[in-house]
Amino acid sequence: MNVTTIGIDLAKNVFSIHGVNHHGKVVVRKRLTRAKLLPFIAQLPPCLIGMEACSGAHHWAREMTTLGHQVRIIAPRFVAPYRKSSKNDDNDAEAICEAVGRPNMRFVPIKTAEQQAVLCLHRIRRGLIKERTAQINQIRGLLAEFGLIMPQGRYAARHHIPEILEDGENGLPMLTRRLLHDINARIRQLDNEILTYDREIEAMARRDDQAKRLMAVPGIGPQTATAILASAPDPTQFKSGRHFAAWLGLVPRQYSTGGKVRLGRITKRGDKYLRTLLIHGTRAVIAGLADKNDALSNWARDLVERRGYKRAAVALAAKNARIIWALLMHQTDFRNQPVEV
Questions:
Q1: Neighbours of 105 (CB within 10 A)
Q2: pLDDT at 337
Q3: pLDDT over 90 at 197, yes or no
Q4: How many domains does the chain have?
Q5: Do 224 and 190 share a structural domain?
């Protein structure tokens, strides 16, 4: 079969295939079940295969790469402009086939199984944190129904919930007291599970030389270092550190026309989880500036005074992103220059 480019619309059970030859003529247009997809791809000559970034895309990309094909994963928002008509599986596959052949198209790096395993650890931990927050908020809401107001935050909850449950004179019915005790037990269990995952992430970071190199940067801890190494692509794919920061969505949104440059808020593109970790890390750095006298601390302190705390936190996160790219690109260690008095 003389096919050079294929677009695959991924699904759980039925996959749409659209393939063209080097003249752009359609030579394949069919639907295959999950069991028949890889055997069909295996009998094709080496070709360019495109698919949208979705659940299972990295798995299929690895499998098809081992068969000798060149596989590219595309973000869905870059495929949509190439869809000619209504959205359905066949039209999506045709749009993917068209988009993957564009010379300036941006692609999602294919993750290894080990990288996905690390991300599984991060995602499960994040899910547990969300569940713990929901349980604490539920207790706060239920206590408020009985006129018992508890301060916000998990540390306040850890201190006040046992006191409220043990106080026999606060008017809390026994049934409610028992139910809230069960929720509090679940919160303590979640605390232990999250702590276990935190220790596993820390141990993982200590074993990785790249992670230890990143953790030397102020505001980069084990969670941020391991998440970046598992999520970020090869640094050689970016022209500069600013391109890496833009990939994370930490650069200003631009709306320029007629020679007038207008910059707004950050774009918030890319991985929200990585961006959140970087900004939370810089908040800790700013909170601990105190009397530090190195170049980075002085720059951050001046920025806080000129632009405010929140803008400074985001700017420092963007600066850390550029530093991370440089460390990974040149395989060097971070050196924070002291200021000579």
A1: 16
A2: 67
A3: yes
A4: 3
A5: no
C-beta separation of 298 from 275 below 8 A: no
The CA angle 216-220-223, to the nearest 5 degrees, is: 120
Residues 226 and 203 in one domain: no
Q: How far apart are CA 19 and CA 275, in angstroms?
A: 37
Residue 340 lies in a domain: no
Domain residues for the domain of 292 are 215-330
Burial 5-40 (b: 16+ CB within 10 A, else e): bbbbbbbeeebbbbbbeeeeeeebeeebeeeebeee
> In terms of domains, do 326 and 221 share one?
yes
Residue 179 falls inside a structural domain: yes
Q: Is residue 106 part of a domain?
A: no
For 278-314, give the DSSP string.
HHHHHHHHHHT-TT--BHHHHHHHHHHHHH-HHHHHH
How far apart (Å, rounded) are the C-alpha atoms in residues 139 and 143? 6
When computed from its CA atoms, the radius of gyration of the chain, rounded to whole angstroms, is 25
The pLDDT of residue 98 is 95
Mean pLDDT estimate for the chain: 92
Domain of 14, CATH number, reads 3.30.420.40
Report yes or no on 26 lying in a domain. yes
Lookup: tokens for 124: 């499960």
Where b means 16+ CB within 10 Å and e means fewer, 199-235 reads: eebbebbeebeebebbbebbbbbbbbbbbbbbbbeeb
Q: Is 24 left (phi over 0), alpha (psi -120 to 50) or beta?
A: left
Both 70 and 175 in one domain: the answer is no
CB 61 within 8 A of CB 69: no
Ramachandran quadrant class, 114 (left: phi over 0; alpha: psi -120 to 50; beta: rest): alpha
- List, for residues 74-130, the tens digit of each pLDDT value: 999 999 999 988 999 999 999 999 999 999 898 998 999 999 999 999 999 999 999
Task: Decide which of 173, 207, 241 is a domain's last residue.
Answer: 207
> What is the residue type of 255?
Y
d(CA 128, CA 193): 8
62 neighbors 107 (Cβ within 8 angstroms): no
Percent of the chain at pLDDT above 90? 78
